[in-house]
Amino acid sequence: MTKLIFMGTPDFSATVLKGLLDDANYDVLAVVTQPDRAVGRKKEIKMTPVKEVALEHNLPVYQPEKMSGSDEMAELMTLGADGIVTAAFGQFLPTKLLDSVDFAVNVHASLLPKYRGGAPIHYAIINGDKEAGVTIMEMVKKMDAGDMIAKASTPITDDDNVGTMFEKLAVIGRDLLLKTLPDYIAGNIKPEPQDESQATFSPNITPEEERIDWNKSARDVFNHIRGLYPWPVAHTLLDGKRFKIYEASLVEGQGKPGQIIEKGKKSLVVATGDGAISLKTVQPAGKPRMSIVDFLNGVGRKLEVGDLIGE
């Protein structure tokens, strides 16, 4: 039985961890995840999804703010693990730690060398990619730059968003890892170096990147909205205040970018630089998330065709 240390944080990682725990070939000695954080308006302290799974299985949990030089890392190195498996952990692993095990592999949610970094699924959707995927790669002390062990892909449809793609890719990543890890450990797979000339990057989304640019095409705005849903959520301005748009759809129409070109009891259509989108789910400043119907029956009643948002 191969003894592992698992490192990960979000639901994507939790799916991979569950797969390892259900496989009799592996003994997960410990789990490493990011520290508990305050979330939401009430700033409630919340455990990571990976920590929740680990505690359900009575596994030791380590949560260093920074792995390098930490007491947690020193203790992990004494456990006698054969290897490390990471999936969306969120920290670099020191060379000293990588050298302490026979192997260290990462489950990364992109088709490397495309989209190295922390937000590969967001960028794939925002950029209008037709497919996304998962790469199993060797860990090195450089962001997502290790040799590739295996890849698998899946289409991105107009019905997809970051949430749906995370769910799909988590299952794909779990299955791909469990399929290839035994052969990799046995030395039957020769990892393939990445082509550095083809590398692109997907850093975490900044607050400035969340804002919608209405001068772009309807397709680009549509991709932007679903590429930030369900987190961190795209926004624009309404009466000078942040107005979040969770969901929208592509529709026919032309007008000045950001202009309301159609308003009905159940619809609000906004023009872009080329085409238009119909808003579906929104959140005005100081209000909860709501359907466009509820918005139009409330604070949105004052809006008229010809009004501009985003200014």
From TrEMBL:
Enzyme class: transferase
UniProt GO molecular function: methionyl-tRNA formyltransferase activity
Keyword field contains Transferase: yes
Domain Formyl transferase C-terminal, residue spans: 204-299
The Formyl transferase N-terminal domain, residue ranges: 4-179
Binding site for (6S)-5,6,7,8-tetrahydrofolate: S110, L111, L112, P113
EC number: 2.1.2.9
Catalytic activity line of the entry: L-methionyl-tRNA(fMet) + (6R)-10-formyltetrahydrofolate = N-formyl-L-methionyl-tRNA(fMet) + (6S)-5,6,7,8-tetrahydrofolate + H(+)
Keywords: Protein biosynthesis, Transferase
Biased composition (Polar residues): 196-205
Region (Disordered): 189-208
Domain of life, source organism: Bacteria
GO cellular component, one term: cytosol
Cross-referenced Gene3D superfamilies: Formyl transferase, C-terminal domain (3.10.25.10), Formyl transferase, N-terminal domain (3.40.50.170)
Task of the protein: Attaches a formyl group to the free amino group of methionyl-tRNA(fMet). The formyl group appears to play a dual role in the initiator identity of N-formylmethionyl-tRNA by promoting its recognition by IF2 and preventing the misappropriation of this tRNA by the elongation apparatus.
Stated family: Belongs to the Fmt family.
Name assigned to this protein: Methionyl-tRNA formyltransferase
Protein species of origin: Streptococcus vicugnae
